Amino acid sequence: MKAINFLFFLIFLAVGEAVAIFIGALTHPAIGGVLGVGAFFFALLMAIAIKIAYQWERAVILRLGKYSGTKGPGLFFVIPVVDRAIFADTRIITMDIPGQQVITKDNVPVLVNGVLYFAVAKVEDAILNVQNYRVAMMQYALTVLRDVIGEMMLDELLAERERISAQIEGAVEAQAKKWGLLVETIKIQDIDMPEELKKMMSRQASAEREKRANITKSEGDKMAAQNLADAAKTMAASGGAMQLRTLQTVDGLGPTASNTVVLALPLDIMEAFQSYNAMNKAKLPPKSS
Fold it and tell me: Does the residue 222 lie in any domain?
């Protein structure tokens, strides 16, 4: 901004001096000298009076210490010495919330940090109502973060970050509106806990996973046993099913020379004995009570 004002000063000074030299040449050199001095002060006043606000800037004008209006973006004029222009950036401002040592509701110390996104919505309120709106927002966000997390259990803090962030954002936004600020969002970045607590939680998680694995394995064994029992009933009711199953098992061994299969007793003979025993049982008279 100072470079722009200096550029305007040089332009007006050059034009004024050129006019002074031209008039002095036509009239009298003394008149040209007076006009040259006047051109210098005129260029200085114009450089002070001309202000430029960028597209993302707004300027609060204080006239003799009293609020006069808000101007910008673009080119505007102020009254030198009488007016003072205070510029404010209306873009989104990102501020890191430093790590805060907080005691949760279940008496666990945690270190929490986050990030705050906000912007200036009403420039006049942000400049006139707050001495330093950046510092005010930071301190208020820190206070709300400690208050909200202090009312949470550790499990809630770890599992419900989004809800906690929304709760902090709502509390900060309610106050920020009074300062002419707009809170975009507040996010919790990291939650740090004591190393002993991390190890305990790791052991707990490992035990929980082992428990689920054992339950899954036992359920699988149960289902396998039921399927084997059903298969045995089916093969017992079907003639030749056991022989086909045996042949299938032998075929699955593969034609490798190192595999030797010895059948001590043919399955036909075993099935004949089973049929004979079943016939004898059918011929026996029932036992008297």
Answer: no
Locate 113 and state its tokens.
């940090």
- Structure-token pair, residue 236: 């017992």
Distance CA 160, CA 153 (A): 10
Per-residue pLDDT tens over the stretch 168-198: 899 999 899 999 999 998 988 888 877 776 6
How far apart CA 222 and CA 21 sit, in angstroms, is 110
**Which CATH number fits the domain that encloses residue 158?**
3.30.479.30
Are 43 and 19 within 8 A, CB to CB? no
For 110-150, how does the pLDDT look when each residue is reduced to its tens digit (9 = 90+)? 888 889 999 999 999 999 999 899 999 999 999 898 888 88
Statement: the pTM of the whole predicted model exceeds 0.85: no
Going by C-alpha positions, the residue among 31, 38, 49 that lies closest to residue 16 is 38
Choose among 41, 62, 40, 59: nearest CA to 51: 59
End position of a domain, from candidates 89, 123, 143:
89
Please state, in angstroms and rounded to a whole number, the distance separating the CA atoms of residues 213 and 230: 26
Q: Is 66 found in the same domain as 23?
A: yes
